[in-house]
Amino acid sequence: MIESNLSKSFDVHKKFYDIIIEMSSRKLIQDSKFLALVLRHKPQTIGLTLDENGWADIETLLSCCQKNRKNITREELNEIVSTDNKKRYTISEDGLKIRAAQGHSIQVDLELQPQDPPPILYHGTCERFLPSIMRGGLKHQSRNYVHLSIDVQTAMNVGRRHGKPVVLEIDTQSMKNDGMLFYLAENGVWLSNDIDIKYLKVHE
């Protein structure tokens, strides 16, 4: 009888613990999406100002979040940055500032220097976008750069977010020979300006 009660008590506590963990995980995901919005696209929505290189003072960021009913602690911020599998965010060496590694629609200078890319890079999209891409090339759209991946699987995962995925191969060597520049973001994403269709082909 005692063992049975202990077992039930353990099960109740475990379920409660699992619920807390799930809620905490869900909050971190929501907070990360909110930070992406603020640090990449709309800092003004919470009264935040980024410097010319995209950096935000962390204490100011957290204060602005709190004033807009989005309570994020420094510990939660650190966890978001350290556990993000895409390394979307960078904290400065002195630990005082944060910025998005790439993906901005607002004008910022990420202080990136041109880099020599691998001979082939990949871009993930979906079937419904393919006809327009093959007519007019790859455009950066609302972002500052076209985003490119070093491997097919990563590009496939990107394309899958929008529908049935399609992966494009980018002939970076020909682009480089024609004077095009490539940049490598802090999180390993390759960046370029718009890409003409002559440098593209569908990955088989």
From TrEMBL:
Gene3D superfamilies registered for this protein in UniProt: 3.20.170.30, RNA 2'-phosphotransferase, Tpt1/KptA family, N-terminal domain
UniProt GO MF annotations: NAD+ poly-ADP-ribosyltransferase activity; tRNA 2'-phosphotransferase activity
InterPro entries for the chain: Ptrans_KptA/Tpt1, RNA_2'-PTrans_C, RNA_2'-PTrans_KptA, RNA_2'-PTrans_N
A matching Pfam family: PTS_2-RNA
Alphabetical keyword list: NAD, Transferase
Catalytically driven reaction(s): 2'-phospho-[ligated tRNA] + NAD(+) = mature tRNA + ADP-alpha-D-ribose 1'',2''-cyclic phosphate + nicotinamide
EC number assigned by the record: 2.7.1.160
A single GO BP: tRNA processing
Recorded superkingdom: Eukaryota
Physiological role: Catalyzes the last step of tRNA splicing, the transfer of the splice junction 2'-phosphate from ligated tRNA to NAD to produce ADP-ribose 1''-2'' cyclic phosphate.
Similarity comment: Belongs to the KptA/TPT1 family.
Protein name per its UniProtKB record: 2'-phosphotransferase
Species this protein is from: Tritrichomonas foetus
